[in-house]
Amino acid sequence: MLRSLVGSEMCIRDRYQRRVRGQTTMSGMAVPALGNAPKTAEGAKQLYDEWAASYDASLKSWGYRAPQRVAEELASAGLPAESELLDLGCGTGMSGEALSAVSARLIGADISPESLEVARSKEIYSETHVANLDLALPMEAACFDGVACVGVMSYVERFDQFLGEVIRVLKPGGLFVATHRKELWDENKRDCRAQAELLVESHQWEMVCVGEPEPYMPENPDPIESAKQIRLLVFRKASPSPSP
């Protein structure tokens, strides 16, 4: 059955790529490299370095609303207006354009230097850092009111390390709001859901919300990509118990 499903997906993508080569106009911009890039840190760096110049135009043509949805969830969960917010996997700053509306100071981190050059040109980040999300983050402990992660977690391989770092840099009571692809979360790929739940069980944070499936990039001309859905994930770091 698995071989049949994999073969079917390859057949669908092959038909799409032949159609891309034969057409010049489509509802959304075609980016075949997105479906072919390895879902690793190195795969992300290569893909997004090469894509940086046209990334924003591509995502806008796909009806991509994940940044706005994360900003809405941060505001709904009570992120203070004067907050300092970390945008993990900020890329070209497309996420930051939405997140800057709900925070007073925005810090960006991404593995792609070329994307960060575009982000810096928008002048919405107070600082930007090159960072691999499978490794330690170049930030002090307990310095952010919120951490956002938009359209990034499918490239994370070490969720114990990644989520541990999110906890470390959040202030007590701070919010983590992220998107993750529905099937990856539901099927606990790379231990993503289990590691998040371990932090709940150890009282390091609480699960505020796991959202219902939402469209991810519905106008992407690749039928495999346009069918993908995301969940919004909201966690709040625990605050110290008051002294008796």
Unreliable stretches (pLDDT < 50, length at least 5) are: 1-26
Q: Report the span from N to C terminus.
A: 58 Å
Q: State the order of secondary-structure elements, H for helix, E for strand.
A: HHHHHEHEHEEHEHHEEHE
**Strands, count:** 8
3D shape: globular
* Class per helix and strand makeup: alpha/beta
Report the biggest beta sheet as strand number plus sense, adding barrel if it closes: 8 strands, mixed
Helix content: 40-55%
β content, as a range? 15-25%
Indicate the multimeric state.
single chain
Number of helices: 11
Features:
8-stranded mixed beta sheet; 244 residues; disordered N terminus; globular; alpha/beta
Question: How would you describe the overall organization of this protein?
Answer:
- There is one protein chain.
- This protein is of the alpha/beta class.
- Helices cover 41% and strands 20% of the residues.
- Strands 1, 2, 3, 4, 5, 6, 7 and 8 form an 8-stranded mixed β-sheet that branches.
- Helix 8 packs across helix 10.
- The longest helix has 21 residues.
- The radius of gyration is 18 Å and the shape is globular.
- The N terminus is likely disordered.
Write the layout of secondary structure elements.
Layout (H helix, E strand, L loop, with lengths): L1 H21 L10 H4 L4 H11 L3 H7 L4 H11 L7 E5 L5 H6 L5 E6 L2 H9 L5 E4 L13 E6 L9 H11 E12 H5 L5 H10 L3 E6 L3 E2 L7 H4 L2 E9 L7
Parallel strand pairs: 1-2, 1-4, 2-3, 4-5
Antiparallel strand pairs: 5-8, 6-8, 7-8
